[in-house]
Structures are given as structure tokens and as C-alpha cells.
Amino acid sequence: MRTAIYPGSFDPLTNGHLDVIQRAAKLFDRVVVAVAVNESKQPLFTLRERVALVKKAVAYLPHVETDSFDGLLVEYAAAQKAGAIVRGLRAVSDFEFEFQLALMNRKLDEKIETIFMMPKDTYTFLSSRIVKEIARLGGEVSPFVPAHVQAALKRKLKPGK
Ligand code: ADP
Q1: Does residue 94 line the site of ligand 1, with CB under 6 A?
Q2: Where would a tag sit more exposed on the chain, N or C end, judged by fewer CB atoms within 10 A?
């Protein structure tokens, strides 16, 4: 059974993430979307919320699971018996950081391969950060995130909260 881990902050999950998950699900028998605790990034959504939003979005994909992790990704991947880490590449701007991360992870555990997936071109400009910015300013985010994520953003960013 071939398992891949797709790690990230998912603060919150966007259609770009979903696109990568769907592509990975075609290549692997089991895909674990692993939400990073990442307190240092001061996420808008709590870990529980981020996990719940991902879980709902992938419910229709039978061999995709949602989990959370803290600490070293390669150790988590080994514990999940994963042979690969999946990351998304949007543009050249992602490349340098992702390249560094992939080589570092290989140094830490050379048995785990990093695989890069490119999303549909319409999602290449999409990031959780931009979605949060648009939502904060009252813009329409429905083209960029699933409906339940849109609703969660609305609730989270309600004036007075
Ligand atoms: P991180 O904090 O690890 O960057 P993100 O949730 O922002 O977490 O992203 C997780 C992974 O998904 C990263 O590999 C990132 O490049 C990728 N990703 C994010 N948005 C998109 C998108 N619109 N299309 C393709 N990949 C994406």
C-alpha cells in the first residue's frame, strides 16, 4: 500500500489545496492530509477547526484521511509508513523554499521522497493568506474555497469578534 502525506498549515483549506489532494489521491492508495500545529505562524483557525474544515472537504474521497502533527515531518511520515511527502508548487516563488525543505527532509530521512504537484492554472495565484485577506476586507471568496470554508471565514471574521 502506497501512502503519501500532504502536510501544511491549511489555514484554511482552499480549492488549490483540494486540487493537489485530488491529484495525489489518483497516484497513491492512501493520502493523509496532515495539518501542522504551527503555533508560531499564529493561525486564524485553531488546529481543531483547520482539521475539521479539511475533513469535511475530503469526506467524499475514500482513501484520503485527515490528521494533525507536531514536530518533525519525516518522523511523522515514517510513523504513518508513508513513502512520500506531497507538496504543491504554484509558481517559481514557491520553488526556492520548497527545494530547500525537500532536500532537508531527504537529509533527515532519505527513504522518503518529496513529490511536487502543480495545481490547475486557475489556482496558481491562490493562497490561504490571500483568501483571508479578501475575506477580511469583505470580498467574495466563493470561487476560491469550498462553501463550508467560506461560512467558517464569515463566522470567524464577523465584526466584533
Ligand atoms: P505551509 O504553511 O506548509 O506553506 P500551506 O497550507 O500554505 O502550508 O500549504 C501547504 C502546501 O500546499 C504547500 O506545499 C503549498 O505550496 C501548497 N499550496 C498552497 N496553496 C496552493 C495552491 N493554490 N495550489 C497548489 N498548491 C498549493
Answers
A1: yes
A2: C
